[in-house]
Amino acid sequence: MLNGCVAGWRSPEADLAHSRLSGRADLRILPVRSTGVEVVETLRSHPVDVVLLPMDWVDVARAIKKDVLPALATTPSLVLIAHAPRLSTRARALASGFDGVVDLAEDTEAVVAALHRITTSLTADENDFMVSDLGIIPDLLARNLSLIDQHDSEFLDLLAIGTSDEEIALAMEWNVQQVRNRVAALLDANGLRYRTQLAVAHVSSARIPDFIRPISE
Amino acid sequence: MIEQGCRLLPEGTDTFEIVDCPEFTVVTGDGEIYTLFRIVRITHDCTEAKLPWTHLANVSRVVDQAIGVARLHVVDRVIVDASVVMALHDD
User: Fold this and answer.
1) Phi and psi dihedrals of A203, rounded to 5?
2) Of A62, A138, B2, B8, which cross-links A96 as Cys (Cβ 3.0–4.6 Å)?
3) ipTM, 2 decimals?
4) pTM, two decimal places
5) Directed axis angle between helix A165-172 and helix A152-160, to 10°?
6) What is the mean pLDDT of residues A80-107?
């Protein structure tokens, strides 16, 4: 028996997933949650094996992945629900912390099989050869960056708004060699390959206060 | 890679006589890939004004260690530009 929670607000994907998966003997699907806070409260109060979210909830999903799931006793899988998802959709899902993607264009048995596979298997979409060819770093957008010293927060704020190395050097009163060396060090410390990955990972690090509120409050 | 207009420096030349920091980063891949190197020894200074670099050096790559030779453009003891030819690599 798989316990599932579907999230979405006026979402055709969420409504379709809920209607197709409800009433099955091998699934227990809760009513559709329409806000991120409702999803978080559900995860804290119900045993949930899998959370299904549509694409426009991707920012909610990565916040849940980063701030909510680590505090739970058991970690549910996050699954993107989409109709005939494109490669770019699956790649963004993987980078955003989803454990897998189910295609609602497939029949219900195939969708259920995919959910079981995602929740029980160690393999994720990162092993999809086309996604892995893109060099996607799983959970890139659902992680906290490792910093080297107290200057890095300001440094990354500048980098993440599109400033050049020379402009950062001017703002930080560093020389350009120091800026480049710091970019290289932060890339290495976080297992990243490209400067842009550092920028988007920092932009994505903003936290949603409602999600990080402790359970006891 | 010894260039016309470059002068061999004494083996005992201290890197810190020429630059403040022996580590520098080469940016490639359309500005996306940052590779950190450390100067092992600065071997030549290049006095020819038309050259776009000022020194040659033996360098090592900090991550995925390998050795190479670098052309450095040093201004006010700061490496403002560099290019590296690796001597050993895994490709």
Assistant:
1) -60, -35
2) A62
3) 0.88
4) 0.83
5) 140
6) 93
d(C-alpha A213, C-alpha A15), whole Å: 28
- Identify which of A186, A191, A159, A188 has the alpha carbon closest to the alpha carbon of residue A172: A159
Q: Say whether B34 and A178 touch across the interface (CB within 8 A).
A: no
* Cβ-defined contact of A184 to B79 (cutoff 8 Å): no
The answer on pLDDT for A160 being more than 50 is yes
B10 and B52 in contact (C-beta within 8 Å)? Answer: no
Average pLDDT on B24-33 reads 96
By the CB < 8 Å criterion, does B64 face chain A?
no
Q: Give the pLDDT score at A204.
A: 87
- A18 phi, psi to nearest 5 deg: -65, -45
The total of other beta-carbon atoms located within 10 Å of residue B28's CB is: 11
Query: Is the pLDDT at B90 greater than 60, yes or no?
Result: no
Distance from CA of B31 to the nearest CA of A (A): 8
Distance (Å, whole) CA A180 – CA A184? 6
Grouping H, G, I as helix, E, B as strand and the rest as coil, residue A181 is: helix
Contacts of range B10-19, beta carbons closer than 8 Å, 24 or more positions apart: B11/B41, B13/B41, B13/B42, B15/B39, B15/B41, B15/B42, B15/B57, B18/B42, B18/B45, B18/B55, B18/B74, B18/B77, B19/B72, B19/B74, B19/B77, B19/B78, B19/B79
Instruction: Give the integer Cα–Cα distance in Å for B91 and B83.
Output: 18
Kindly list the distances between the CA atom of residue A40 and the CA atoms of A30, A78, A102, A209, in Å, as whole numbers in the listed order. 13, 12, 22, 12
CB B10 within 8 A of CB B41: no
Residue of B25, B63, B75, B80 to mutate, interface with A, max A Cβ within 10 Å? B25
From the centroid of its chain, how far is CA A54?
12
Cβ contact, residue pair B36, A188, below 8 Å: yes
Instruction: Quote the minimal CA–CA distance from A188 to chain B in Å.
Output: 8
